[in-house]
Design brief:
- It contains 15 helices and 24 strands.
- It is of the alpha+beta class and about 425 residues long.
- It folds into four domains: about 55 residues, Winged helix-like DNA-binding domain superfamily/Winged helix DNA-binding domain (Arc Repressor Mutant, subunit A, Orthogonal Bundle), CATH 1.10.10.10; about 120 residues, HprK N-terminal domain-like (Udp-n-acetylmuramoylalanyl-d-glutamate--2,6- Diaminopimelate Ligase, Chain: A, domain 1); about 120 residues, Roll (CBS-domain), CATH 3.10.580; about 120 residues, Hotdog Thioesterase (Thiol Ester Dehydrase, Chain A).
- Helix 12 crosses helix 13.
- Keywords: CBS domain.
- InterPro entries: CBS_dom, CBS_dom_sf, Diverse_CBS-Domain, DRTGG, HotDog_dom_sf, Ser_kin/Pase_Hpr-like_N_sf, Thioestr_dom, WH-like_DNA-bd_sf.
Length: about 425
């Protein structure tokens, strides 16, 4: 039977997009306490089912699919520009497909407007009206208001009209930045993208005996199983180490390891991979925020997914992408070095190489060196930066990695960064090596 928390989430999901939601009303409709209703509504907000807007309230919105991540709702626009809703609140859940800057004559402006677009404009009331009639929302810049008949039209059309204190071009830059950030996030693989649902996996109940563990071990490819209670909450895990020397009629809850490591669907795959490598774990339970078992991920699944991601073209360009694209490898006998040029994106406000970019160089060079030596993938454990001197914009640098220690599963690398034959940066990286499957 579903818990009250789950019943509220199911109720919210069944509501029509655009419906307003209140803690008091949900508590009354489902006969639950207001505290329970509040926690469930917050969880619905985390899942992207609702959005809470200041001076408007909480509304049901369309849950975003990952492939449609580059589009923003009008409710999100309010948060980005610190806006205030003047009218058309019923349309805040709608998705913005493009925006138009109204720095032109009205006739020219109308040629670019279409349904579900956003007109960014100043105090031009006639343009506000025409945009709404064309099916476009309006964002008024400069902190201006609009006339009452425009607000009534926005309510009638269910198209938001929003006011912000920022100027037109600042607002356009802020929205562009938000869309770009969404594109980068779209490329980040989460545990929820690859996990195996619990219906297709094996787990133990705490009331099972050890005999059940032996049965599963014989019929599956692994020996590590999560343990759940009557509400399917993960309460432990059983591995081969836990069962050594134990009688087969013992209850699982007496031999399990309590408080095991778990991940959420929202956990990034890279974080899960690091955690599994560091702890030497083959399988990790995937849980909901209230700790109920929803699936499993295996170390092999994670590594395969990460290697697949590395082969995909990236849409949003991060600092790491910039560092990677400009780095070339040079080989002179047994000596391997890397060269790059400092571009504006790699500098701090003073125009010199950013410390963060220096660390990105260290990580990328070390990873490429291990790949070149066919040692597998590198998982960084620790980077110690000893010193860094200012490196000017447009400077050409050479990065020389030198292996201090290497084993089957770990490596220690000394990295020096040179500019015009001077050492301008030095670091030591310690990492683990994982074989490619």
């Amino acid at each position: 039977m579903a818990t009250k928390h789950e019943q509220i989430l199911n109720h919210i999901e069944s509501l029509k997009v655009g419906n307003k939601i209140s803690v008091r009303q949900v508590a009354k409709d489902l006969s639950v306490s207001e505290g329970t209703a509040y926690r469930a509504i917050k969880e619905a907000e985390n899942q992207g089912l609702v959005s809470t807007i200041e001076r408007v309230g909480t509304i049901r919105i369309e849950q975003k699919k990952k492939e449609n991540f580059e589009h923003l709702t009008f409710a999100e626009i309010i948060g980005i520009v610190d806006g205030q809703v003047l009218g058309g609140r019923e349309g805040l859940y709608k998705t913005l497909h493009k925006f138009v800057i109204g720095a032109m004559k009205t006739d020219a402006m109308m040629r670019y407007l279409e349904k579900d677009s956003l007109l960014i404009i100043g105090n031009r009331v006639e343009a506000h009206r025409l945009a709404l009639e064309e099916g476009a929302a309006v964002l008024i810049t400069g902190g201006f208001d609009t006339e009452d008949h425009i607000k009534r039209l926005a309510d009638e059309k269910q198209l938001p009209i929003i006011s912000t204190s920022y100027d037109t071009f600042t607002v356009a830059a802020m929205i562009n930045r938000a869309i770009y950030d969404q594109l980068i996030k779209k490329e980040i693989v989460l545990v929820g993208d690859i996990y195996t649902p619990y219906e297709n996996t094996h787990y133990l109940k705490r009331t099972d005996t050890l005999e059940r563990w032996y049965f599963l071990k014989e019929h599956t490819t692994h020996s590590r199983y999560p343990v759940v209670d009557e509400q399917m909450r993960v309460v432990g895990i059983v591995t081969s180490k836990d069962v050594i020397g134990k009688a087969s009629d013992l209850l699982i809850e007496r031999i399990m390891t309590k408080s095991p490591m778990t991940v959420l669907k929202e956990t990034s795959l890279a974080y899960a991979a690091h955690m599994m490598v560091w702890e030497g774990i083959e399988i990790v339970p995937v849980v909901s925020p209230n700790h109920r078992l929803i699936g499993l991920i295996s170390r092999q699944d994670v590594l395969k997914a990460l290697q697949h991601v590395q082969r995909q073209p990236q849409v949003g360009e991060t600092i790491d992408d910039i560092v990677t694209s400009g780095l070339t490898m040079q080989k002179d006998g047994h000596h391997i070095s890397f060269r790059s040029q400092i571009t504006p994106q790699m500098t701090n406000s003073l125009g010199t190489l950013s410390n963060g970019v220096f660390v990105s160089f260290i990580t990328e060079v070390s990873s490429r060196l291990m790949t070149h030596m066919k040692k597998g993938d590198l998982v960084v454990e620790n980077i110690s930066v000893y010193f860094i001197k200012p490196v000017q914009l447009e400077s050409k640098i050479e990065i020389s990695p030198r292996i201090l220690e290497i084993g089957r599963k770990s490596v220690k690398i000394d990295i020096e960064l040179h500019h015009e034959k001077d050492i301008v940066g030095k670091a030591v990286l310690i990492g683990q090596l994982i074989d490619r499957y």
